[in-house]
Amino acid sequence: MPPGPSSSTDRAHPVRTVLDERDIGRALTRISHEILERNKGATDLVLLGIPSRGVPLAERIAERISTVEGYAVPVGSLDVTMYRDDLRMKPARTLLPTQIPAGGIDGRTVVLVDDVLFSGRTIRAALDALNDLGRPRAVQLAVLVDRGHRELPIRADFVGKNLPTSLVERVRVSLVGIDDVDAVTIQGTAPAGEVTA
Fold it and tell me: Is residue 177 assigned to a domain?
């Protein structure tokens, strides 16, 4: 049985929990309010989660916005696999669905939602993917965790937690619906070939 989020894999690679279920809930509530404040409401918003864990995060943010505004914000998913700049260097990846809500993204404010912002390359790929789907009025970025180490000039508009890390550490986001628990953990050493976000 694999170790839980608060246990250690071994003494050389300890795992520590930096956000638990309540922390994640509070972070998403704050992000939801910040999105509403920045955009003066929910009109013309579209949330697009980046698979896999960006999608349930986008759905949870939309639920919170709906509770406040009484308005159902359209939610979709945006697979960026074929737009990544490391395709030729990494093993083949499974394509995940891109689902754009009815009404599309033209003239709308699109909020991209992802779990971890790292190098910025996933978000660059997402911007390229959006270009093929339409022309949003504006694009904003919401992430649960910003761990630093950017390789491209990309910055999140809404951040659940800034989490300074070293390059040898691995940040893992677990979400109920995909995983067994809601948690953000850090493991001491990143495995070889880890994909940068």
Answer: no
User: What is the DSSP track for 8-41?
Assistant: -S-SSS-EEEEE-HHHHHHHHHHHHHHHHHHHTS
Answer whether residue 9 is part of any domain: no
CATH number of the domain within which 152 lies:
3.40.50.2020
DSSP labels for 121-189? HHHHHHHHHHHTT---SEEEEEEEEE----SSS---SEEEEE----TT-EEEEE-BTTBSS-EEEEESS
Over its length of 197 residues, how does the chain's per-residue pLDDT go in tens digits?
Answer: 444 444 444 455 689 999 999 999 999 999 999 999 999 999 999 999 999 999 999 999 999 999 999 999 999 999 999 998 876 666 666 778 899 999 999 999 999 999 999 999 999 999 999 999 999 999 999 999 999 999 999 999 999 999 999 999 999 999 999 999 999 999 986 444 444 56
The total of structural domains in the chain comes to 1
For residue 149, give its domain range.
21-161
